[in-house]
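Progress against Task 2.4 (sequence-to-structure conversion) is shown through the following example record, which the project officer requested during the mid-term review.
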Amino acid sequence: MWVSLQYGAGLRTLRYFVAVAEELHFGRAAARLHMSQPPLSRAIKQLEADVGADLLHRSAAGVTLAPAGAALLDEAHTLLDEADRVRIRVAAAAGAATITIGILGDSSDRGATRLAAEYRRRHPGVEVRVPETDLNDPTCGPRAGLIDVALTRAPFAKIGLTAHQLSADPVGVVPCTDDLLVAHDHLRLADLVGRRWFQFPDRTDPIWQSYWNGGAPREGPVVRAVQECLQAVLWNGTVGMTPLGHHPPGELAMV
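Structure tokens generated for the chain above:
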């Protein structure tokens, strides 16, 4: 079992397993890892094939740990902690400094572009890793130990986090260019009553969900990334809020 883990699965799969084992739910684990559920399920099945044992008991009620899974969970924590220490020691020996910055799938943010340029100027020797994360977790993963710092948007639950506001951006509504909403110079939430909005998955931070849904429950397609939001407007005629600094494609407008 141990040899298979070292050479067959890898540290990433072990992190996947730890998330599922701690959450005891594939959906919550996928949200925590900022990935969709099918590849997570496939990775765990492959891990079980590698070790030659069932690690989880799956049922309609949820997930429980099998005896082999409980044993692996303890070993996985130890191995992952040691792997992190090894990475730090190797980076220090090589004289290389690294930082992982989580960002939402929101690469059109001009503020982030300016900040990145200034960071390169001040810290030319630092290797920066920038994984994009889904919109369902506005914190981008610090609680799961996936990142060092996040560049994201408020509001969200700040429990266990320290947040600093860098800027404040006005927001608008994105409809199709042939939508009657485009005739308005300005919109109020009352103007959007009865409209379908794109919305985030159920396990999304409720403060974040409420803000981007205009403070009220909505109906509409579930989205996880900026491009999915835009496609929901284009194909389903939904609306949703977005920072005014963004530039939607030509088929869409901003009010």
